Structures are given as structure tokens and as C-alpha cells.
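Q: Got a minute? One more chain.
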Amino acid sequence: MDTLKNIVPNPVRLDVGGERMEIAPRAAEHFPALMAAAAPILNELTSGNLFYALAKNIRAVQGVVAVCADRGVEWVAAQTLRDQGRLLKACWEANAPFFVEEVLPVITDLLESMTGALGPLSSMASSEPATDSTSSSGSQPPA
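A: Always. Here it is, folded:
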């Protein structure tokens, strides 16, 4: 039975806005929409503070939840803050295993192979253009 559970995971069930919902893992076809909705949050994560990234980008969070819940952003935004939090949690519970176990290792492997092929990106020279103090600018070098 564990194999069947891995193939077809159980959806997360919850009641929101008087409606019984099931949040199931999103298929690969939804990945571009999820990444587009999550982009502002991901950009903000460079701060290292997930709470700040989520709070600053609440509309993006609502967009991610809308994709996962198969609802419109306006529907998500119309829910109470508590219900939006419950929806976000359900979306994470339904989708995190796939991203953590499947997507993240693929991306990590890809980045490692690219770094191996290209060399460390931080070692690229970043010096300013050379200046020639004997140029014809009319000024003489200090004596």
C-alpha cells in the first residue's frame, strides 16, 4: 500500500469559507504557474528570513495558494487571514514532498554539474579597466 500512496498521495482536506476542499499535489503542468507566482517570494528569500519574504509578498503567497487550490487569487484573498494560513499550510503539506524529494535534488545536481563544467562563478575577474597614466589627457603624472 505504501507504493500506491507514493504514486497517488492523499490530498489534504480542510474546510474553508464554508466549502470542503481537497488540496492535492499539483502536476508538472502547474509548475510554471507555481514558479511564476512564487518568484517574488523566492527573490526575497535572499534575506534569509522566510517570514519576512512571505509577509512582504502576501499577494504572491495568495497566487501560489490559488494555483495549488485551483481557485482564483481573488477567492483566496477574500478568505480570512486564518483560512489563508490554513490553505498555505495545506498547499505546503500536499506539495513539499514532491519538491523536496524530486525537484530539489534535480536542481541541485544540475547546478553542481554546471559549476563543475563552468568552474566557480565567483572566481571570474572583476577588475576595472586598466588606466594609462601617460595618456594624452593633458595632465602629467605626479613627480
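A: The chain has six helices and two strands.
Q: Perfect, thanks.
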